Amino acid sequence: MNEVMKAVQLHAFGGPDVLVYEDAPKPVIGAGEVLVRVHAVGVNPPDWYLREGYEMLPPEWRPEMVFPIIPGTDISGVVEAVADDVVGFAIGDEVYAMVRFPSGLNGESRAYAQYVAVAATELALKPAGIDHVHAAAAPMSLLTAWQFIIDQGHDVPNPLQPNQHVPVPLEGKRVLVNGAGGGVGHLLVQLAKWRGAQVIAVASGKHEAMLRDLGADAFYDYGKTKVEDELRDLDLVVDAVGGPQSSRFLPTLKPGGSLFPVFGLGYDDGGEAARLGVNVSTTQVNSSGAQLAQIAPLLDDGTIRVMIDSTFPLSEARRAHEHAARGNLQGKIVLAVA
Fold it and tell me: Which of 200, 245, 312, 335 can pair with 41 through a Cys bridge, CB separation 3.0 to 4.6 Å?
């Protein structure tokens, strides 16, 4: 008889109302895997892209999916079982991970659940200095920020450009982060500051106090100021919002500067970047236990802080997605697992 657990599943694509909290089969680990009893789950944009059936992707990019689907990628919890061939983890270890991303875009990451099977290569020991809620909030957002501006750390082919993304040196550079109040943005601010950059944060006015506290040297409220009309001679713009509007930041950059749209789909500057001598580059975040282990000391000692917008019980994932849809989040949404 298969064991069961509680999980949030989809039986159809749609709005938050398609998220159903119910019994699901408890995963069985295979070679190279660790079974984690989940304590908290981070909520990320790919969770609602999946829930909607990836409507924002070109049809040829949409993965084949089979219902029921358990969404989610980011977890923090305690090791329940370890495959015989796994070294470095033991039952009872507190761990965190971004599970099977982007390989699990077809719904195979399965994190909105009481238990998840994780490849040991994607897992790291949880930083002791933070709780499970903050650890679960970190993986996707922090790995995205890290792989964009510190170290890509993988050579998976880039679907959005022919060349691999290469971060640029940050020490002493003027760096603008757009969308700085959100899950990825507030971590970009801190990492750039840690690496010695002068950081300009652009966000909604409600985020100013938080972002100055996290180290931003200057702040612009996008509701009051069009920074593309005000700023010049920047070395790097990291646009955590991304998409078709990213090209508006090109005039703010000095020749030889760089624009990194975190969401690269739909970006098109009509050749303006080349005319201005500006480098535009994006990448796709990939799971990495090694990088989470490398980052853990920064979370442990408070060098990097993950801000929590709100927490919801796993059983109320629907409400969490409704809250996310309202936008203008300050940090991350997390699901607490009973």
Answer: 335
